[in-house]
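Subject: Protein record for review, amino acid sequence with backbone structure tokens
Category: Structural biology, sequence-to-fold work with a learned token vocabulary.
Format: Residues in single-letter code; tokens as whole numbers, each standing for a residue.
Body of memo: The sequence and its backbone structure tokens, given next.
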Amino acid sequence: MTSETRIPTIDLSDGDAAAGAVDRALCGAGFLLVTGHGIDPALPAGIREAARKFFRLPAAVKEPYAVRVGGRGWLGPGAEANGYAEGTRTPPDLKESLSFAADEPTGDTAVDAEWFLPNTWPAEVPELKPLVEAYLWRMRALSDRLLGLLGEALGEGGDFFTRHTGHPTYGFNVNWYPGTDTVGPPAPGQFRIGPHTDFGTVTVLDRQAGRGGLQVFTDDGGWQDAPWDPEALTVNIGDLMARWTGDRWRSGRHRVLPPPADAPAEELMSLVYFYECDPGTVVAPLPAPKGRVAYEPVDSHTYLRAKLDAISVGEGGPPDRPESGDGA
């Protein structure tokens, strides 16, 4: 069975037929395509246009916005190595990112200082802020809609997950994958994003088709190009969701190929929204027979912080910590 048949397209406007297909897909590849999502394609197109202006600026102009993984700002070349999430020593990923996150404070000083800091907006592209803020608002609503569908697919009710998203954390990366004219030829084992699984509940991805694009791993098919539909968004679940379901559902393993040798100038840009839950949520796995692994309950954000630290290149992260283990 190919990944194309393991990754169905779900029309969110047809809720009656979706639950069974969702459960089957998430037990397998951990990926879905969704249509009927209501996102005007002009919005992601506008974000790409504005972000491209920033990424094309000289490095010295971008440097004041530089942050480590989990921060709000610019992740420059060499900042991230997602293969370390699997405990695999890999070269840094061949990409740059603009990273944003939840910024509405809860009133808890410690929580806000770690998870709800203000976003940083590049002064050089003022048009980016209203576009991203509009997109984040729509992504949060869509993610709760997806979590409602996932609760129904488990037979646990539509609020099984959303009762933990009253004031959730989330992250948003605009990932720029330039060609070899910018990044140079890939080193052995180097990818635009190395093989990994995401860390949170659901990831919603607006991506572009390309030769050096997204691949998804399945046990029966190995690595295969992910199916693409210009009308659809790509959705996958992360490690926290897999744990929550007692590994009934699979955290979708994926990678982004390096610039192809026969199309070295290929440039792609992905908009990646990582949804999580309220800080301090205790994630306990579903019991058998729905759940398959009886994990110990974990604090959601202690778990997420350890994952983020593991892929950050530099102090505290790889290559100094290959034993520990987000991106898309």
In short: The first strand starts at residue 9 and ends at 11. The chain has one domain: 3-311. The domain at 3-311 is CATH 2.60.120.330 (Jelly Rolls).
